[in-house]
Amino acid sequence: MKKILLLAAVAVMGMSVANAQVDFGAKVGFDLTNYWGEDVSHTMQPNYQAGLLMEYHATPKFSVAPEVVFAAQGGKSDKLTYHANYINVPVMLKYYVAPALSVDFGPQVGFNVYSKVTPKDADAIDLGDYTNTVDFGLGLGATYNLTDNAFIQARYTMGLTKVYKDETIAGFSTANYNKAKNGNIQISFGMKF
Known about the structure:
This protein is mainly beta and 193 residues long.
């Protein structure tokens, strides 16, 4: 009896996977980025993102959508402009509240590929060795499908880990920013293939 129930469960799971729809696509977007955290005061900085995505529709109401996105991030204060570029990998869980509208939530891991700070009226300082390589965050947003292939997204991703190590670089101390975390408002347009 247990073997029959196990075989039936495997068959049902196999049918649901076989009937599931998988979409692939690409997206580009405009970002407003900053740093947040204790004693961190930054204004929003315009940036951009571009990447690839996949959406696995497990049911008509629920899907999982991993992405691989290049994102220019950073923050700006009165005297300093920070640039920190990442390869971000969010995995969004999407719940469709209407056939064309989903609420999206999920974790994100980012890998720093470039980091510098530019003081006002001075040359840029490379912060690559003083920037934490991995950044973890959480994203919350929504996707609206304009057509079967085109969509727009709005999302806020809040970093949970520190961007910088507590170090001094060429007389410039990152100690004031060692609690800084990424914040990212994203507006994207994408196409599914």
